[in-house]
Amino acid sequence: MSDFFVLGGGGHARVLIHALKRLGHDVHGYTALSDEGEFMQTPYLGTDDAFEQLQGSLSSCAALGIGKTGVQTRRLDFLDKLQALGFRVPVIHAPGAICHAGVQAGEGTVVLDGAVVVIGSRLGRACIVNTNATVDHDCVLGDDVHIAPGATLSGGVEVGDHCMIGTGANLIQAIRVCADCMIGAGATVVRDISIPGVYVGTPARRIA
Ligand SMILES: CC(=O)SCCNC(=O)CCNC(=O)[C@H](O)C(C)(C)COP(=O)(O)OP(=O)(O)OC[C@H]1O[C@@H](n2cnc3c(N)ncnc32)[C@H](O)[C@@H]1OP(=O)(O)O
C-alpha cells in the first residue's frame, strides 16, 4: 500500500480519492486551484502547482485528479512535471474495474469502476477509462486519451493522443481515430477519422 497525494480538486479528483482509499492506500491530501473542496474529505495542500514547493514533505506517489472534458488539457504537462520531480504516478485500477492480464498502461492512467479493458489492449500515459466504458480486445490508446462513461471501443480500435471519446459513444471494430479529436456524446463512429476536429451523430460527422 502507498501514500498518495491527488493533484486536482474537482469531481475526477474526488472519484480517484475514493478509489484509492477503497484500494487501501493512504491519501494525504489534494491540490486545487482554490480551497473549495470541503466535500473532498481529505486535506487541502495548496494550489495545483504547490507540489513543487511541497515536494520534500509529500508522499512519493501522486494521482492525476484533473479531469478532461476537451482535447487540450494540462494532464500530460502535470504528469511530466511530477515525474521530473521524482514522484511516481502509478496506474490506478479502481476496485470495480476489470483489466485483463497483459493489458499495458502508461504512467498516470486510470481505469474506473465498471470499466473493462480487454486482452491485448495498450493504453498510453495519462489516460482515463471512465465508469462503465469498454475498451475491447487489441485496442491502442495514445497519451492523454479520455474514454468517457459508457463509451464503447470495439476490437482493434486505435485512438490518437489527446482524444476525448464522449459519454456513450460507440466505435465499431478496427476504427482509427487520429490525434486531437473530440467524439461527441452518443456518436457512432463507423469510418476512420484522419482529420482532427469535433464529430457527432450516427454515423459521426465532423462539425468543427
Ligand atoms: C464523468 C464525466 O462527466 S466525463 C465528461 C463526459 N462528457 C462528454 O462526453 C461531453 C462530450 N461533449 C459533447 O458531446 C459536446 O456536445 C460536443 C463537444 C460534441 C459539442 O460541444 P460544443 O462544441 O460546445 O457544441 P454545441 O453545444 O454548440 O453544439 C453544436 C451543434 O452540435 C450539436 N451537438 C452537440 N453535441 C452533440 C452530440 N453529442 N450529438 C449530436 N449533436 C450534438 C448541437 O445540438 C448543435 O447543433 P445545432 O447547431 O444544430 O444547434
UniProtKB/TrEMBL annotation:
SUPFAM superfamilies to which the protein is assigned, alphabetical: Trimeric LpxA-like enzymes (SSF51161)
InterPro entries linked: AcTrfase_PglD-like (IPR020019), Hexapep (IPR001451), Trans_hexapeptide_repeat (IPR050179), Trimer_LpxA-like_sf (IPR011004)
Domain of life the protein comes from: Bacteria
Family: Belongs to the transferase hexapeptide repeat family.
PANTHER family, per database record: ACETYLTRANSFERASE, UDP-N-ACETYLBACILLOSAMINE N-ACETYLTRANSFERASE
Protein name: Acetyltransferase
Organism encoding this protein: Litchfieldella rifensis
Organism classification: Bacteria, Pseudomonadati, Pseudomonadota, Gammaproteobacteria, Oceanospirillales
